[in-house]
Amino acid sequence: MEEGVVNEILQGPLRDVFDSKQLITDISGSGNNWAVGHKVFGSLYQEQILEKLRKSAEHCDCLQCFFIIHSMGGGTGSGLGTFLLKVLEDEFPEVYRFVTAVYPSNEDDVITSPYNSMLAMKELNEHADCVLPIDNQSLFDIISKIDLVVNSGKLGTTVKPKSLVTSNVGTVTKRHKKPFDAMNNIVANLLLSLTSSARFEGSLNMDLNEISMNLVPFPQLHYLVSSLTPLYTLADVNIPPRRLDQMFSDAFSKDHQLIQADPRHSLYLACALIVRGNVQISDLRRNIERLKPALQFVSWNQEGWKTSLCSVPPVGHSHSLLALANNTCVKPTFMELRERFMRLYKKKAHLHHYLQVDGMEESAFAEAVSSLSALIQEYNELDATKSMPVPDVPRLSVAM
Amino acid sequence: MSIVTVQLGQCGNQIGFEVFDALFRDTQCSPGLCSKRENEAYQASCKERFFREEENGVPVARAVLVDMEPKVINQTLSKAGQSGRWKYGQHACFCQRQGSGNNWAYGYSVHGPKHEESIMNLIQKEVEKCDSLSGFFIIMSMAGGTGSGLGAFVTQKLQDQYSSSLKMNQIIWPYRTGEVIVQNYNSILTLSHLYRSSDALLIHENDAVHKICAKQMNIKQISFRDLNQVLAHQLGNVFQPTYSEDGSSHYRRDPLGDLMEHLVPHPEFKMLGVRNIPQMSENFLAYSTFTWPGLLKHLRQMLISGAKMEEGIDWQVRPPFSGLPPLGKMSVHKDLHFNTSIANLVILRGKDVQSADVEGFKDPALYTSWLEPVHAFSMWKTPRAFDKYEKSAALVSNSQLLVKPLDMLVGKAWNMFASKAYIHQYTRFGMEEEDFLDSFTLLEQVVASYGSLGP
Questions:
Q1: Residue A76 in contact with residue A30, Cβ under 8 Å?
Q2: Would you state the pLDDT for residue B247?
């Protein structure tokens, strides 16, 4: 809802990739106000948005999925973005809606980000099929880790520049021009891995609709923790291929996650491993057997893994792994969000900015909180089953 | 008589290719340790069953390829075409774009009805190109969405439309620790539906084939291609031509009909498994010699102990002495040691096959009491060797071998069902909890029936 970012893209090296008729901009932005993004710009641009969506959809032989990419803390991405979710659900009910949402980190400088995030969460709960939460702190930590290795100059740690998960070698832009570019590149790699099996051949393909099918056991519980490995490839070819197993171990280490959470000490509902490159089913099985004992799975899905093998690795690597976990470890993130929200809301701070927007009622805030609380409660109930033994459900008995 | 193969989904198509390739390669093994005339009769019989001729002389597989996304079919078609030895029919495939999302309900309730006409037309066209149809061989996995759901749908339609032809479903049982999280649901839905509409279920477990690759074939980094090739070898050993029992001079005409007649005497018992011996990597084959007594002894023990391969056979297991009362009530959920059979078929190929002594398989103690061994056991043979094996034996068995895996599968699916996890993914495409309960009921019945078999 402001022109700067879109204009830059249109003047940049990727200008020919984007259809200049397929964009909508305004002038003043949403002022970091969810209500402005959702209610004002939502109603203002609804027709235009629908028209452009329909046009894009017409070009598809078979439309399977929408990727909605936005931040939670601002006004446009958060407000208009979640407004769009509802539009998509009504207009294209059969098409999946995958949301990559960047959650505000602790040092977020937008004061109203807890409000925006909370209001957006309700929409994500109700209208998204699958959400991949990301936070800037994790992305930043990954960058720091890479910088450490690149600059350490230790023997045997020369990193292949093309292989950095933050690298844009192989893309069109030559240098990272802005501070967030390297961090965003990581998210771009996430989306690439997610769609790799749909774009390339492999011995065990996986489509996007399979992600939703396998990783969302109950409609509300559709938040997935993602982790990417490797972050870089060492140039030294003498390093033996123990690297392959190391890649699997890394996927379950916090250093590689795109969100701050602790899945190892929480409960797994489901887990997917999306493997690219020269990796075979025996490698996959060996590593699942190896890593499984340390992980806690919910009682009704003790052995549930979704796996896929795509033959083509990402640029600069011989293999890579994206792990997606539906795990109760997202609960603390949501609880913190609720905390920060309540701190502001109790004092009614900045509330008037929202309430003065046409169509915005105070009840919206209460509803958003209760929606999030219900979600947290579901995670609580699952966590409570964690240390309990697997219940013995009596089977149907058959008369002989 | 000819067999029309229907390949469904990624698994079905990847395996189908390997099967046709194995069959064709075997026919090209000349002269197969037998006379030239013998070999030619063998080749002709195989070709009639599985291939048809095209103008430029390249044999065309009698197959229909179905998948709900294009990548695998394209690969399969081009792999076959590139080989220059055989190929698939140009218009023999049906393809969509969006896949089935590992969702049985989507495959069965959405894709099925939507594409019924196109798929059945394709099959009809292939059937018309057969002089005489023995039946259908349907290759599918249970774990995914297309093979499982659409496979169940297609089998049902085949039963409606070709009620006098036989259908055998080659089913791939997924790895126990997942390939797909909802595989247990997809599996029970598939098995229960196929039990009603198919004539026989030939089952291969990924876990078992994987072990064969690791222990028998000594493959270090096992790929799906490796699994599929082992499987294709086993199937080739079963389906390649053999002689009629009565020592007649022509190859059997109706492989499917014969298989059904010998192995599925009762519709309650349709699950068949295959054991194959020897099975090893080519490197070792050159240094090994085999005798019929040795091979048959191992094969018999594999049957009795429920082993899925040669290595690690439990020689302690013995059949119960006939005449003596069974040791305590056999409970389904206990560890079953001795594997009781309903019917067995042994297929022998290669050198000195006429000297092979299969008396050990006629022991009544191996079988359930309601069939005489003379009806329960049959043997087919041919002096023509299979692939690179001077002697090879296959055992197709209708026995308790699959009870334990089935029991475990039902248990896990039931556990998940009790929590209602993932059910919304199925009900959104028109299924109901009732459908699940029906499937569970049918399969519990199958488990109980097989479990209660005793001498």
A1: yes
A2: 62
Interhelix angle B151-161/B112-128, rounded to 10 degrees, is 50
Name the closest residue on chain B to residue A300, using Cα atoms: B416
Query: If you write DSSP's letter for every residue of A54-80 in order, what string do you get?
Result: HHHHHT-SS--EEEEEEESSSSIIIII
Residue that is written with structure tokens 């026995």 in the block: B399
Domains of chain B and any CATH numbers: 2-273 (3.40.50.1440), 277-401 (3.30.1330.20), 404-451 (1.10.287)
pTM of the predicted model, to two decimals?
Answer: 0.91
pLDDT-based confidence at A244, cuts 50/70/90? Answer: confident
In chain A, which among 224-283 make CB contacts under 8 A with chain B? Answer: 269-270, 272, 280-283
Give every strand in the sheet of A305-310, ordered side by side. Answer: A225-229, A319-327, A268-277, A305-310
φ and ψ at residue B159, rounded to 5 degrees: -65, -40
List the end-to-end C-alpha distance of chain B, in Å, as a whole number.
37
**Interchain CB distance below 8 Å, A301 and B75:** no
Chain A residues inside the 8 Å CB shell of B101? 207, 209-210, 212-213
Q: Are A139 and A228 in contact (CB under 8 A)?
A: no
Question: CB count, 10 Å around CB of B96?
Answer: 18
Q: Please report the pLDDT score of residue A178 as a whole number.
A: 60
Give the ipTM.
0.88
Answer positive or negative: Cα dihedral of B154, B159, B163, B167: positive
Question: B176, B179, B449: which to substitute to probe chain A, counting the most A Cβ within 10 Å?
Answer: B179
What is the mean pLDDT of the segment spanning B225-232? 95
pLDDT interval class at B182 (50, 70, 90): very high
For an interface test with A, the pick among B18, B71, B98 (most A C-beta atoms closer than 10 Å) comes out as B98
Measured between beta carbons, which residues in chain B are less than 8 angstroms from residue A398? 441, 444-445, 447-448
Vertex B397: Cα angle to B143 and B335 (nearest 5) = 70
B444/A307 touch (CB, cutoff 8 Å), yes or no = no
Instruction: Tell me if A299 and B419 make a contact (CB, 8 A cut-off).
Output: yes
Instruction: Tell me which residue in A64, A282, A396 faces B222 most closely, judged by beta carbons.
Output: A282
DSSP per-residue letters across B305-358: HT-SSSTT--TT--PPPTTSPPSS---TTSPP-S--EEEEEEEEEETTGGG---
Averaged pLDDT score across all residues of chain A: 86
Minimum distance, in Å, between the CA of residue A395 and any CA atom of chain B:
7
Residues contacting residue B405 through CB under 8 Å, at least 6 positions apart: B173, B205
Beta-carbon separation of B71 and A301 below 8 A: no
CA B208 – CA B275 distance, rounded (Å): 10
